[in-house]
Amino acid sequence: MENKSGNIIELKHINRVFEDGFKAVSDFNLEVKRGEFVTFLGPSGCGKTTTLRMIAGFDMPTSGDILLNGRDISKLPPNERPINTVFQRYALFPHMNIFENIAFGLKLKKMPREEIRKKVKKVLELVDLEGFEKRSVSTLSGGQQQRVAIARALVNEPEILLLDEPLGALDLKMRKEMQIELKAMHDELGITFIYVTHDQEEALTMSDKIVVMSEGKIQQIGTPEDIYNEPKNAFVADFIGESNIFNGIMTGPMKARFAGGQFTCVDDVPEGTQITAVVRPEDIELTAPQDGQIRGKVISVIFKGIHYEITVQSGRYEVIIQSTRSATVGSDVGMKVEPDGIHIMIAENHTNVFPVDMNRNHRLAFNDKEFDVSLTELIKGSRRNENHELLDESGEVIDPQKIRITAAIEPQDIRMTDDVDDEAVLVEGVISNLIYKGDHYSYVINTELGQDFIVDDEYLWNMGDSVGLILPVEKMRFTVKK
């Protein structure tokens, strides 16, 4: 079947669930054009490497299809796929010299000796290691070993080269040099590169297309410019570069209020819409206090080499500014932002909705803890008999299995505590993500029950902290479905 789409790889509704029930990748859909440089970008544990391993054939999807040139390869073993992988740990053979390391795969294919010699010579020139054929790999620097690993992959002339955090073990200077070299290799070879990293600068520097991931799901796909200038949600805005992120509201045509000020923007969003405003630090201009759209007091100044990072306290908001001009700690300043420096996103609904049970005592419970809630008020026409059983309108005892009840609570109404033995704690969890919103932090809590909760808190907690969640019953809204 001829592939007319121009896509070399297509991933359709890919899911990967491990035996313990952990969902590493969820409904992943992606099209990769022939010759593209595509980067999977996201924090540790977001599913980047698992997705790469499924493309390579080292791991199989639980469901979904992987198409290569229009043909399903989901069940093919790695050696039958025209794909090679370069890992962070280069996995070179220490008892072989450079030539033998690179030639290893060709010898397994029983290729003629002279053809092997020509192919190895060609890729050594490509990675700038001509004349190193007889050197032991143990005598090489990290950057040189990386080049050998890339040469060993390229000598097989794959249609696709997968690179799993290949520069992670290098120091900063060498990493930057290798970024330039890898991009140059890609441009010269014209083959498809799929690259995994958690380094935003690396992704922005090298990629044609970036796939931003979080907790197994795609958050946004786009060019580096799109991802940086037009983030789809607060996670992308926070993860890609530095951002000031504020909750706000549209007050008129292309008018928004956030961070205590009124701003003109270029996004035409209906008046009254709750929004999230993203302002990059380099887009904020420091002015005299009376000339700014908002004003505040400088609380810190840090020299970063090419700019100063200045933090200003404006009411209850902290604003980060990058400027080539310094400022004096303690001084009053104004802040101004041009309309095209403001990116408006419709606010995501972060209401926490979770199922609650009706137990055998006909009382509401969550995580085996009962709520003091009147079910006769929740369920229309119901009443209790002398045995405290719950009866429906016809006088029949209500079967708890036949009623579905959900509770909803807002992020700002949940309290976190490090005292998990507190009797008020309803459920325990671990902080898996956090975003600073100018006057508070927004946290994602992965709980022991598999239910994620969004919690707003003014205090800074750390990623990975174990916390107890206190959910006041009086702040919950209950919905009943039969």
Tell how many strands the DSSP assignment holds. 32
Mean pLDDT: 88
Query: Radius of gyration from the CA trace?
Result: 28 Å
CATH superfamily of the largest domain: P-loop containing nucleotide triphosphate hydrolases
Give a structural overview.
By secondary structure, this protein is an alpha+beta fold. The protein folds into 3 domains: 7-229, Rossmann fold (3-Layer(aba) Sandwich), CATH 3.40.50; 242-346, Nucleic acid-binding proteins (OB fold (Dihydrolipoamide Acetyltransferase, E2P)); 352-481, Nucleic acid-binding proteins (OB fold (Dihydrolipoamide Acetyltransferase, E2P)), CATH 2.40.50.140. Strand 11 and strand 12 form a beta hairpin. It starts with 6 loop residues before the first strand and ends with a strand.
Show the helix and strand layout.
Layout: E1 7-17, E2 23-33, E3 37-41, H1 48-56, E4 63-68, E5 71-72, E6 83-86, H2 98-108, H3 113-126, H4 142-154, E7 160-164, H5 172-189, E8 192-197, H6 200-206, E9 209-214, E10 217-222, H7 224-229, H8 234-239, E11 244-252, E12 255-258, E13 261-264, E14 274-279, E15 284-287, E16 294-303, E17 308-314, E18 317-323, E19 332-337, E20 342-346, E21 352-358, E22 364-366, E23 369-370, H9 375-378, E24 383-384, E25 390-391, E26 404-409, E27 415-417, E28 427-436, E29 441-447, E30 452-457, E31 466-470, E32 477-481
Helix pairs in contact: 2-3, 2-4, 3-4
